[in-house]
Amino acid sequence: MTHTARRIGRSLALVLPxxxxxxxxxxxxxxxWADTSSSQLVTAxxxxxxxxxxxxxAHEVLRSQLVGELQQGRQPDDVLTHLQRxxxxxxxxxxxxxxxxxxxxxxxxxxxxxTKAQSFARPVCDTSYATGVASMG
Length: 137
Known about the structure:
Layout: H1 2-30, H2 58-71, H3 76-89, H4 94-112, H5 114-119, H6 128-136
Helix pairs in contact: 2-3, 2-4, 3-4, 4-6
């Protein structure tokens, strides 16, 4: 009888886990997990949620600052001098100097008109300021 008991034990050892897994799976599928009644729905809202601002690159901050100075009435030649000082102080800004100078040229045209804005042109970042003025005029 030991041989028969051993055979039944092996069969149960193989069949029992399968039966347990299947019964567990069936039990889970029978539970009403997805109740769609309106009282059960939870919605997320972004209202009132504060997200931290993305850090801006140094050249973007400088561009905004200098254009702001022009818009507040500071003379373009003073702003161009400020740009040149910043590029000399932080050489990493040199690759962005031309783009900043063009933005200043466009802002100067909006503030002073093309003729007066062109009168402030200087060789800061090559001729990028003048290019910015010309693109608007």
